[in-house]
Amino acid sequence: MPNRGFQSSVDLTMNFGLGQNALIDSLVIVWNDDKKQVIKTPKVDQLLVLDYQKANQIFKFITPVISTQFTDITNQTLDFQHIENDYVDYNRDILLRQKYSTEGPALAIGDVNGDGLDDAYIGGSQEHPKFLYIQQKNGKMLPAKTEAFNRDNYLEIVDAIFFDADNDKDLDLYVVTGSNEYDPDAPQLRDRLYMNDGKGKGNYMVQTSKQTGFFTKGQVRKMRVINGLGGKKEVVLIMDLIINIPDKEAPFFLELLKKFDFVKVKQTENAQVLEGLESSLKQMKSMREGKLRKPSISELFYNE
């Protein structure tokens, strides 16, 4: 390409400098179809005209072997491959700047069976398995047979977190379902709370209270569990997309858990989100008292 821009061009003739060398051994020319031409001991300070018809060899690219600082130990630890279901976001919301149906897989780390080793929950895409991997003493991660997860394979899991929801000193699991593949009130958008049975084997049961499972009508960008006022555990969700509203940043949702119920108490006038907002006890107090300035929090959920 001789052109660099408007009213700018370069000479098509290629020039090679030899530095302190008076001559060269050979000149190798590789054409676009990998044919190779070799010119032995060409004279310097001359113009060479290349002829494709004289390229009668095939050039073989050799990838150099580069030593790395990392070793692939996948087969020694965790055997998992994420598979995404086939869905085109733009067929539904043509003004999206990116796909929101491929945010997974969700990953949560915690010691679910109390053996001092970190275990892992990996939430898959719609119609694909969700796995709980139990770490062995040799470092191998083996999948646990959890019927509650198998029944929820139809969900799209976008986030997950381990925490002790019922204060029985074992880790329960809260998973956030999402994606813009569904209608706003579709059952696939109801979050799940899985309770550890406390028997030390990492067995989980889904909490079946009719109030359990907040409808996440969008894509969760951040999720935290914090100790709030009065020692209550609080699940904080920061949203990024409202379904059927193209490319709109959604509200910041705050949920507090008490007996696994969700109570909505207030909605402010402005639904604009402060990018990267992190909740704190001081901010929560201001939320409840309605003292936050605009742009402020869209909806606030807490338990009495």
Automatic annotation (TrEMBL):
Residues 1-48 form the ASPIC/UnbV domain. InterPro entries: Crtac1, FG-GAP, Integrin_alpha_N, UnbV_ASPIC. Keywords: Signal. SUPFAM superfamilies: Integrin alpha N-terminal domain (SSF69318). Pfam families: FG-GAP_3, UnbV_ASPIC. The keyword Lipid biosynthesis does not apply. PANTHER family: CARTILAGE ACIDIC PROTEIN 1 (PTHR16026:SF0). Signal peptide: none annotated. It comes from the Eukaryota. This is ASPIC/UnbV domain-containing protein.
